[in-house]
Amino acid sequence: MSFTLPPLPYAFDALEPHIDARTMEIHHDKHHQAYVTNVNAAIAGTDAEKLSIEELCKNISKYPMPVRNNGGGHYNHSLFWTLLKPNGGGLPTGALAEAINAAFGSFDEMKTKFNAAGTTRFGSGWAWLIKNSEGKLEICSTPNQDNPLMDIAEVKGTPILALDVWEHAYYLHYQNRRPDYCTAWWNLVNWEEAAKRFAM
Ligand code: MN
Known about the structure:
The protein is mainly alpha-helical. It contains eight helices and three strands. A three-stranded antiparallel beta sheet has the order 2-1-3, with helices on both faces.
């Protein structure tokens, strides 16, 4: 089995003004495509070809760095697109909203901690809201294309929200202003998708 680039579930310009069309086009068609191409080359002829991308991440310590970087890149971006939507944002509801209040005290407190995880991640990486093995929510960040599914991750769990803080995700529009990008991203969050992931 080889991995394929999933189509973007909306148009390149659908997330404007928060994420510009050119950034979306390059990010999806060039960056994500490169992770797919490179992970397929890295696993060709190995037993990893039998695994789903989730299974590959969960066993990533068994594979060399190109599999970790590009397999992580494929998983992370596939998730990132689905957790965004045009006219998203607002507030979570139901069980996810309750779990956020239980873990962080309030939605605003969760948002502050999540933004801090994104803005203080040095260099390239991701900020995450995850559900840990006890079913509780936690915030963490990972370097490069690592993610909390990976057996090498410092903090492990199921991703509920994912924010790409690589410069390629925001530099054309925001230049060095990563905090502005992190703030604007909340206007795009697909809470229905996040709630589905939380219920899994
Ligand atoms: Mn990216």
